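pinging the channel bc i need a second pair of eyes. not urgent but kinda urgent?? the chain im working w is below, pasted from the shared doc
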Amino acid sequence: MIPNHQKILVAVLVLAAAGMGAMLWKMRQNAHERLLAGEDSAPTHAPAEVAPAEQATLVVANDADGSLLLEARSLPLPPDPSARARVLLGTLLDLYADPDAAHPVAGGAAGIAQVFLLPAPHRDRHNPDALLAVVNLTGSFVGSHPSGLEAETLTLLSICGTLRANLPRITEVRFLVDGQERPNLAGHADLTRTYLTADAVPTGGGPAE
């Protein structure tokens, strides 16, 4: 025979468990709806109303002749240098995601997770304000990148060149993938080294809209 107080305790525990289950189900549904809605707490492109359009220069890769070409764009650029760098690189990768791109790479702006700016480790008295950019790429972008030394190198150099053209204080660039160091981009181009933006020199063409 089960005492009454134990029956009451069991009933209370059952009701509490049911209530917790319902609450967890509701939280799961809300999270799923936000995911389907595509909510992003850190948008790649700054809203036009808080970021006035400015003239920017992209260094765009061309697979036909292995060149890096200058291309001028009017973009809404935020004042914060890290956010500015992310918008610039997102725009560059959007160009590569275009079906008619001269350097086709899938993924677009979503391939840039974050850009962090730090004091450059190799600063000297002639350039005390030099910065190191840490570009955090997404695993999905890297996983879909075409394999080949030239194609991979062109992507990395165009990123470095675009940063140098618009944020000249950036002299060095390091690459991460999903926040981790990775040996190479898609089997060839080294991601363990530091890239110098001075090496990413456009090989042809002037800024053109």
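so The chain has four helices and six strands. and The beta strands are 53-62, 67-76, 112-119, 131-137, 170-177, 195-196. — does that match what u expected or am i reading it wrong
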